[in-house]
Amino acid sequence: MNKRIDKIMGELERNYSLRVFEGGDPYRVLIRTILSQRTRDENTDQASTLLFSKYQTINEIAEADVEDLEQLVHRAGFYHVKAGRIKEVSQILLDEYDGIVPDDVDELLTLPGVGRKTANCVLVYGFEKPAVCVDVHVHRISNRLGLVKTQYPEQTEVELMKVVPRYYWIELNDLLVQFGQTICRPVSPLHDDCPISEWCDYYRDIDH
């Protein structure tokens, strides 16, 4: 399995460059990831850009009117809930953590609206700490490749941690997300353009 993963990751590394989100700032990464829940990537980008164009600091967001936050993050969907959460999380961080985002997964999971995907993304993109961040792309592609056979993202995280070497964990999410956006799409994946079809169970099992 390790050799297969090396081949897959090597091809993805050749085809995609790793991105930096929100300047790598842990707080902004946290808020962005909360906004990304149950919405499309482009909606997250727009909502995050609008939010941080008006409010640059954790103090400003904590003090902002929730109705104003709702308007700014409207494109992210579920904006009533998300606006309330980012305001509440900001206040908790100020009250309990001196405004500093914790770099521990268990601490992150105590924050409202923060599940395992969000916590692990904060570790990876905010702190560059190894963690397996499983979103819809990672869940779909890992199963298509045959690296895991799971039904839920939480299961995928556990199984990927068993089979993917730790030195790939930081780059795994970003590479698979970009691959999922461009080639391994949910519907009509571009098999002819796929750089890793040689190691893909899904490709091998379909009729060509």
Polypeptide structure, described:
This protein has 208 residues and is mainly α. The protein has 2 domains: 2-18 and 132-205, Endonuclease Iii, domain 2 (Orthogonal Bundle), CATH 1.10.1670; 22-127, Orthogonal Bundle (Endonuclease III, domain 1). It is 61% helix and 0% strand. The chain has 12 helices and no strands. Helix 2 (26-35) crosses helix 3. The protein is elongated. The two termini are 25 Å apart. The model has no long low-confidence stretch (mean pLDDT 97).
Write a brief structural summary.
Helix content is 61%, strand content 0%. With 208 residues, the protein is mostly helical. The radius of gyration is 18 Å and the shape is elongated.
CATH class assignment of the largest domain:
Mainly Alpha
Strand content: under 5%
Stretches where pLDDT falls below 50 for ≥5 residues?
none
Percentage of residues assigned to helices: 55-70%
**How many structural domains?**
2
How many strands, which pairing sense, and closed or not: the largest β-sheet? none
The number of E-state strands comes to 0
Large-scale geometry: elongated
What oligomeric state do the depicted chains represent?
single chain
The topology string of helices and strands comes to HHHHHHHHHHHH
Radius of gyration of CA atoms, rounded to a whole number: 18 Å
CATH domain topology of the largest domain: Endonuclease III, domain 1
- The mean pLDDT is 97
